[in-house]
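Tokenised fold entry reproduced for absentees:

. . .
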Amino acid sequence: MRYKACSVKKGKKTYHYILDKETGNIQKECTKYLKHKAMQNRSENTIIQIARILPYYMDFLDIRSLTLEAVAAMKFADQSEHFHEFLTYVKSGAHSGSYLEIKNNTANVYLRTVFGLYNFLHRNGQLPFLTVLDDRNFSYVTSVGTKVTTSCLTYDGYLKKNEYKSRIASKDDIKKILSVCTNSRDKLLIMLMEETGLRIGEALGIKYTEDIDFENKRIFVRYRDDNKNRAYAKNAEERYMRISDDAFSLLNIYLAEHADIFEKTDYLFIVTSGKNKGTPLSINSFYSTLKTLGKQSGVHITNHMLRHYFADERRKANWPLIEISKALGHKNIATTERYLHVSDNEIEDAQDTYFKKNASGVNVSDFL
């Protein structure tokens, strides 16, 4: 490979760039794009994925003696053939040299990442708009009857999606997992994720001194890029969710149980014993905990399944889709939200209504 993804750490910030190993120079277009994504406060994992994919495409261009400018200047048919060839190149595993075939969905992600680069360069005035992409408009009606029209870039040449359905956790699954929890920390973390749909990085980044409104029983999600456990919110938008009385009671019990430790840390979810006592809980530690609880209860459950459970339960409770998306913190709804003006108060009212109509069925006293 001629191109390589690299990173350098300056202080607490990590910067990613693409290196041309043949010349020893930084590949400017790709590196500018990565910097742009960092300035958008995209998650570290997202930026790492982009940095990992772009060298494959730059090598693909190099093998064919092409440049980004040459591809952007191609006629429609030639562009279509070029990007179809890249899809099949990736799908065959030729990009990595393994020649192990990968799934269509994964190959499509590679191409979407490449289109992101081209679109950035177009919007930056460096390249013409790709002729294979369509800027299509679509409309929908909001819950208050307002018609909204927006646009998105589409491409008709993606490979057929692999069928995949993730399993949703059931209420019984969650009860079984909670029943084998032996400490208030794990019970609280699982209950919060089930009730709020938080990502694991968002949950583990909570600081009890800053992100909990004890008076109104709210949990806030705030973006930080310097968490000691490298658990980050995915996007820069702030949001909050109300929690149930049961979860709030358990929260206070947990804080009281470990009051001596909490005098020395701001993080809500911490290691409560051993040599790392008092340090923020890591994502890998949480995964290990879920795996252990799964073996003990006979129930396989993941943080993603808890998010799916949250979304499905709110759908059953007739939450509008836009409110579910906002509560989940989906990036592609952020722009829509600015048009629809879905307020935090509307989300809070919907959450209150849900708790009143749908008792959790989990008696917190059973686990204390």
